[in-house]
Amino acid sequence: MPQTTESDEHKALRSAVAALGNRHGRPCNAQELWSEAGKLGYLGVNLPKEYGGGGGGITELSLVLEELGTAGCPLLMMIVSPAICGTVIARFGTDAQKRRWLPGLADGSRLMAFGITEPDAGSNSHRITTTARRDGADWLLTGRKVFVSGVDIADATLVVGRTEDARTGRLKPCLFIVPRDAPGFHRRPIDMELHAVEKQFELVLDDVRLPADALVGDEDAGLLQLFAGLNPERVMTAAFAIGMGRYAISRAVAYARERTVWNAPIGAHQAIAHPLAQAHIDLELARLMTQKAARLYDAGDDAGAGEAANMAKYAAGEACVKAVDQAVHTLGGNGLTREFGLASLITAARVSRIAPVSREMILNYVSHQTLGLPKSY
Ligand SMILES: Cc1cc2nc3c(=O)[nH]c(=O)nc-3n(C[C@H](O)[C@H](O)[C@H](O)COP(=O)(O)OP(=O)(O)OC[C@H]3O[C@@H](n4cnc5c(N)ncnc54)[C@H](O)[C@@H]3O)c2cc1C
């Protein structure tokens, strides 16, 4: 296991999760792994103890996801259910919402998806038009979402809408828990070229009637509430990418030690060894930034965590794409066979460059917010 500056407690958590992941191995049955990880307390390690969680933070949760990914069995829904939805409910939900949702999200027996992306807004979430309007004590929610993961297996989806400020252009987001079988809530799976157990869905919300307590947090709290969920999402996506990258490199290294076509194993050729070493360094650097972002978030520094989480997600996405590319190349023809199972990671690795915020949007953010350059869009 790579060296870290982590506490003994975190190292012990890493080894315990790694052992669980390795027991399941790749290809793994995600449902079985989810249920076992939930029972062992790993899925809710970030949630408050009084609601069945482990009382830790995103630091611990991201470590769990990274180690499962390193073992070849990443659980994408961890990014969504405990990290985004669990955090938002724990921070802004009512006592009743916390009692209703957190114990199940913590032990993995309940799942919540998260929908913000819209077909006509994409990266520009200020342009979302899913609109909530009041009807007596109820809310009526209307709009469309796209690429929302795991809606079929989730008990509910946390949907980002806006109240009727829709035409002002300034987003005042509000978050609603929409049960999977709510009347008017339609889903259609998107045919993705991605080998993953979690499916992506296009959603249509057609005057979905929701009770007053479907609203999480304050309808006027705006972006603060939303970013309480989006920063953990970025940290978790970084951990997802680092895990996948580490898995790919470990497979490539094992192969390069054995495969011999001249006089020595191919790993003795620097043209094979150096790019693997570089990929390893990039993953380690990305992990340091991810740990920084997680610690800032857990310390309550939302602004600092925002910048660090963006940078960590960027670095991890780039490192993952490079690591997978080099791993596939190391295996030669076997890099593209089903038996070795690395080629499908080429597509999967790209996800961390695109979602939840693309590399270009992070570069825009850093140019503008960190460096103070003029905004280009
Ligand atoms: C596997 C997968 C799972 C997902 N799961 C979820 C989920 O659970 N919930 C959810 O809400 N969403 C989910 N998403 C959606 C994801 O967050 C979006 O795909 C992402 O935000 C990008 O939006 P878009 O696809 O509309 O791309 P677009 O916004 O159309 O961007 C297309 C390209 O243009 C570039 N671009 C756009 N604007 C600029 C600019 N100003 N400057 C420079 N370049 C720019 C982008 O970087 C990108 O390369 C998922 C996506 C994938 C692929």
UniProtKB/TrEMBL annotation:
Pfam families: Acyl-CoA_dh_1, Acyl-CoA_dh_M, Acyl-CoA_dh_N. InterPro entries: Acyl-CoA_dehydrogenase, Acyl-CoA_Oxase/DH_mid-dom, Acyl-CoA_Oxase/DH_mid-dom_sf, AcylCo_DH-like_C, AcylCo_DH/oxidase_C, AcylCoA_DH/ox_N, AcylCoA_DH/ox_N_sf, AcylCoA_DH/oxidase_NM_dom_sf. Residues 113-207 form the Acyl-CoA oxidase/dehydrogenase middle domain. Its EC number is 1.-.-.-. GO terms for molecular function: oxidoreductase activity. Its cofactor is FAD. It is an enzyme of class 1 (oxidoreductase). Residues 8-108 form the Acyl-CoA dehydrogenase/oxidase N-terminal domain. Keywords: FAD, Flavoprotein, Oxidoreductase. Residues 222-364 form the Acyl-CoA dehydrogenase/oxidase C-terminal domain. Belongs to the acyl-CoA dehydrogenase family. This is Acyl-CoA dehydrogenase family protein. It comes from Streptomyces bullii.
